[in-house]
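Q: What structure does this chain adopt?
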Amino acid sequence: MSSYSPAETAEKSGFSIDTLRYYEKIGLLSGIARNASGRRVFSDDDLQWLGMLRCLRGTGMPIAEMLRYSELARGGAETVQERLELLQEHDRRVEEQIATLRIQQEQVKMKIGFYRDVVVCDIAPAGASA
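A:
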């Protein structure tokens, strides 16, 4: 199993060193090993966990829910149902966000089409400031 310094872990995970410290402080990262001089050493498992945290954070899961998920994950097999429910609820919210973004994207595309027509015609219509 490989081991990584905080700087290497930050680079591989996409989290800053400060975020890694913060996540450890609040309990999102637990059991981080220390070397003989007391410096944190991250494992492949830690990187995999950070990948999951990156995914959850990137999809908008609040830190409080990430903490709950973390606690449940440490709870072992008896918490699988709760983890499933938590992730399903998060997935539902992600689907809603995607649907909202699609609607907003259509609005942007309509405006792009409008401006493309203006450029092609080389005529700036009155009131085309928006």
